DNA sequence: GTCTATAACGAGATAGAC
DNA sequence: GTCTATCTCGTTATAGAC
């Protein structure tokens, strides 16, 4: 009985991931907007109604792909971070950013799914939030470490930003000065701005040695977050 | 005869822009991937074959929409810049960035068309390049002015970036130090990273007072380009 | 209980004959 | 330029196999 349940569960997992794999293939070929349950089913030799045992709707399949993509990116970033756990905060920052860029270059269509234009008619549910936060939390951890060990350079924020800064810091890192949270959120957006520009073609005819350009740029962004203090490698 | 030709030309322009307007409406509703010449024609009470007299293919219609969007954004940015021609470079920088953000918030689907995920199966032709460069050139002009009047703060670039920096600077601004061109290109991507994150939902549940946050962030990016020298408003 | 298959709905796109 | 026959789609109801 437990073996029967185990076999069923195993089969279910296998079919589920076969569906997602095929859906990812279609994502790459035709874009998220044209992702079709019927086409996925056809390619797998199933009937479309059978898919509803695994995903209650097309949007739920999309949601699963989005969460998978965020998790895959998060794992790549975390693995890269673990590999350089012993170096200074700026080097770890750059390593995580480079891992994010590398992941994006390897899986451009999944990158477009999570950081590109929204899919028309689709609204991501709250269940995507934890996976979506992984990279941000990792970067926040680096900044927190830097703050605890050697301190981070803080730029004073203007009075008009004070309420938002305090609110944002209370949500993200109540233990750190609000200036740091603000700088981090901005830096996070800026890093992905660089990745998006490269991936979506904005750097065509402009930047050629993109890896070097990226490394330098995110390193400067890291400086901007205060990761480097006078005399801090 | 010249009046007849004039009337013909006028009618052609009118129909052309009616087609683009309807196409933009569909863009907003269903996304660029599903833009269909037939649907546009149907909505205009035309027959699909008639559209081919105005746009030889769906891709050409897309290209026209892209160029229009870049031009509209460029014009918004240039207008905003002209309105603050007499203030310091950092304030002008912020004004242009805010104009870009404002345009993006007003026309999110056109923003997605030009700065979002690529449309599957579509390759933008070289004819889009001039329009696409307008905002970048405007920002470059601000940096150039700042450099000529009070100088800009330069951060030294690492040796590994030197070849790319020189190549990039030769293309973009041979009259300025290569460090400045590199900083500008990175800043350009970072500014649009902020806009994209806000527009595509990445700031949901994170940043609330987005206008203030944006103004502060792009001002800091402007600092990073060296727009503010010790004692330069 | 868990799954797959058949059939159908309403809506929309598409290809081709006329 | 028009019409029609034939496709696609997401989704549901239902019936039956394991």
Which H/E pattern describes the elements of chain A? HHHHHHHHHH
Q: What is the count of β-strands of chain A?
A: 0
Largest interface: A-B, 55 and 56 residues
Strand residue percentage of chain A: under 5%
Structural class of chain A: mainly alpha
The description of the largest β-sheet of chain A is:
none
In DSSP terms (H or I, runs of 4 or more residues), the helix count of chain A works out at 10
Low-confidence stretches of chain A: none
CATH architecture grouping of the largest domain in chain A: Orthogonal Bundle
The H-level CATH homologous superfamily of the largest domain in chain A, spelled out, is: Tetracycline Repressor, domain 2
Number of domains of chain A: 2
Mean residue pLDDT of chain A: 94
Provide the gyration radius of chain A in Å. 21 Å
Percent range for helical residues of chain A?
Answer: 55-70%
| CATH top level label of the largest domain in chain A | Mainly Alpha
Folded structure, characterized:
The structure is a homodimer of 233-residue chains. The mean pLDDT of chain A is 94. Chain A has two domains: 56 residues, Arc Repressor Mutant, subunit A, CATH 1.10.10; 158 residues, Tetracycline Repressor, domain 2 (Orthogonal Bundle). Chain A is mainly α. Helices cover 69% and strands 0% of the residues of chain A. In chain A, α4 packs across α6, α5 runs antiparallel to α7 and α7 packs across α9. Chain A has ten helices and no strands. The radius of gyration of chain A is 21 Å and the shape is elongated. In chain A, 40% of the residues are buried. At the A-B interface, α8, α9 and α10 of A face α8, α9 and α10 of B. Chain A binds a DNA duplex (18 and 18 nucleotides) through α1, α2 and α3.
């Amino acid at each position: 009985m437990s073996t029967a349940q185990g076999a069923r569960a195993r089969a279910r997992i296998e079919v589920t991931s076969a569906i997602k794999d095929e859906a990812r293939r279609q994502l790459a070929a035709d874009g998220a907007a044209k992702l079709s349950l019927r086409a996925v089913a056809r390619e797998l030799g199933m009937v479309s109604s059978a898919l509803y045992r695994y995903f209650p709707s097309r949007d739920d399949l999309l949601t699963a792909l989005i969460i998978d993509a965020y998790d895959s990116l998060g794992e790549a970033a975390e693995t890269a971070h673990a590999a350089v756990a012993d170096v200074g905060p700026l080097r770890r920052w750059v390593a995580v950013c480079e891992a994010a860029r590398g992941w994006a270059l390897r899986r451009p269509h999944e990158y477009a799914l999570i950081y590109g234009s929204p899919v028309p008619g689709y609204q991501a549910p709250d269940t995507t939030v934890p996976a979506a936060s992984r990279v941000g939390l990792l970067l926040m951890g680096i900044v927190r470490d830097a703050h605890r060990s050697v301190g981070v350079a803080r730029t004073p924020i203007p009075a008009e930003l004070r309420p938002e800064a305090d609110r944002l810091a209370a949500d993200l890192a109540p233990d750190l000065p609000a200036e740091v949270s603000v700088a981090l959120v901005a830096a996070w957006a800026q890093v992905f701005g660089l990745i998006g520009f490269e991936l979506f073609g904005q750097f065509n005819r402009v930047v050629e040695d993109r890896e070097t350009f990226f490394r330098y740029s995110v390193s400067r962004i890291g400086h901007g977050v205060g990761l480097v203090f006078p005399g801090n490698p």
